[in-house]
Amino acid sequence: MSNRREFITLVGGAVVTWPLGARAQQQPMPVIGFMSARAPEDSAHLLAAFRRGLAEGGYVEGQNVSVEFRWARGQYDLLPAMAADLVSRRVSVLVAVGGDPSPRAAKRATSTIPIVFGVGGDPISEGLVESFNRPGGNATGDTLYTNIMEPKRLGLLRELVPGVPLIGVLLNPSLAPYQLPQIEEAARSIDQRILVAKASTDEELMAAFTALTVERVGALLVAADPYFDTRRDQIVGFAERQRLPAIYHFREYAVAGGLLSYGVSVTDGYRQRGVYTARILRGAKPADLPVLQPTKFETVINLKTAKALGIKISDNLLSLADEVIE
């Protein structure tokens, strides 16, 4: 009897364990396709935030999820091929970040694979979603509103250096249709002359630097753009060499030596994208996840840079600052 009981136990064990093994083979580790208009060298802190968000949802890269990365390094024309490649690999979720051109390429590449995006403007006008509360399709994510904050930045720069005759504006032509009308209208409203220098390549950036120098601009507004993020040190270095008071859209510029930044926390945006990605991997539908909007904007002032430029920060600006770098 004991032998017979052992035989039944062994058979029972085989019957129980075999289907589990079969299910494991049928459900391989999910793959996230991660495409960005930025560069990996300036995105390490953003990836760390994204991974924190994934972990909050129970996913750890290399343990129960893998990630395929694609980086455009500010070359937006590479994004459509990157999106098509990730779609052909049948990733479980397509994360499209680093600026508006990335989600546009992802949305054109697939209408079925779930997309988690990060944009700087209006995702409805971009055709990414039907509404903020009910996205309605295969995409959701967040907007940082970086592309529509240029008038506010121009006002802060003017307060920083009142009376400056000419302010330079560094702008990527790909986003000019969205940003330039707002900047021009804001400049007219405060009777401020501006000089617009456009750049989307390294050659154009050098030419823009030359134009801004030749025209002797007295301050610089760097419009929000992923390409500029990938050339952050070059732009901050140019402003330093020319002794130009400059304002930027992300805190990272002020940390790198820029005088002033005004915008949202980009790291928190990436963390939330990780959270949404994990929720979708667990079965949530993008159509049911509301597009998130920022509730807090932060002003960061680099006092060390201000002293080097011989600029006294007004008490009003100091009172507005969320962070002062000394």
3D architecture notes:
- The protein is of the alpha/beta class and 326 residues long.
- It has two domains: 29-145 and 265-288, Response regulator (Rossmann fold, 3-Layer(aba) Sandwich), CATH 3.40.50; 147-263 and 298-325, Response regulator (Rossmann fold).
- 44% of the residues lie in helices and 18% in strands.
- It contains 13 helices and twelve strands.
- The chain has helices at 2-26, 44-56, 79-88, 101-109, 150-160, 176-189, 202-214, 226-230, 232-241, 251-255, 266-281, 303-309, 315-320; strands spanning 31-36, 66-71, 93-97, 115-119, 139-143, 166-171, 193-198, 219-222, 246-248, 260-263, 298-302, 323-325.
- The chain has a seven-stranded mixed sheet with strand order 7-6-8-9-10-11-12, with helices on both faces.
- Helix 2 (44-56) runs parallel beside helix 11, helix 3 (79-88) packs across helix 4 and helix 5 packs across helix 6 (176-189).
- The chain is elongated.
- Mean pLDDT is 91; it is low at 1-25.
